[in-house]
Amino acid sequence: MSAESLRDPRLLAQQAAGGAGPLLTEGRSEPADSVAALCADFSEVCASAVDPLEIASALEFDGLSDQAVADRYGLPDVFALAQEMFQRVPRQPAEPEPLSDPWHTSRLRPALHGLLYGLPAICFPAAAGLLGGPGVLPTLVAALLVAWGLSQGLAYLGYRRLGMADTGQTRRVLRAGLVAGLAVVAAAMAAAAMLLHARADVVIFGAGEGAYMLGACVLMVLGADRWLLVALAPGVLGSAAGRIQDEIRAVLAGEFRGPIDQVTHLRFDPDVEGFAPRGLPLWNTHKIA
What we know:
elongated; single chain; 68% helix; disordered C terminus; disordered N terminus; two-stranded antiparallel ribbon; 1% strand; 13 helices; 289 residues; 3 domains
């Protein structure tokens, strides 16, 4: 088999003349309708081919050899047949199928992500009354910065692996990254305990903060955002209930403080009529008067 037939001067001359007559071969001619039928069978290949070699490859893949081409179509080899088919069929390349948008998502998912990032802030007022001692704020800030940086790197690795491989490999990468990230957060909290002399409860709270951010990153990459709502529900509901209870107590204390202060003022002010000395009830003041 040779590609020299693609440069056969007789074929080139016939192509320059329009290729309307029978195919010129080595002493033989072949009716055009037999090649036309083959062009119809390979219409998609011929229409999208940018070179006759593509058609020749398709013909060979279909089982046509030089001898079969010579016997059936009167052409010297497969390359000559591919050249003829390439000339007859006009170029009409098929449009490629539109690629799916990898970033297509529902409109509620970004709002859910923002909610998941904001909900832990409800727990901080409730924890503020429990955390004390030196280095509280620096320890929590250090935990936040370390976990945030690690989660960004973990998200990059997860999305990159998700675009190159299947979900199983992505899960393994994220699992290994999560373990490594938790180890780094634990080391950072140990350093904070030694350098800032933070109490144990502060260190544990900071480690929990970092663990949440890393775990949230893994679940968001895998599209399991709803599990974060389940994990946050107990702490958020408890913190919200405690906050509401404190507000109710403050309101009630403000409403009753005025009348109580007035009664106390009347009872212990000697310039007010009906003054009751310390230790006597207010209803006995008429006996003193």
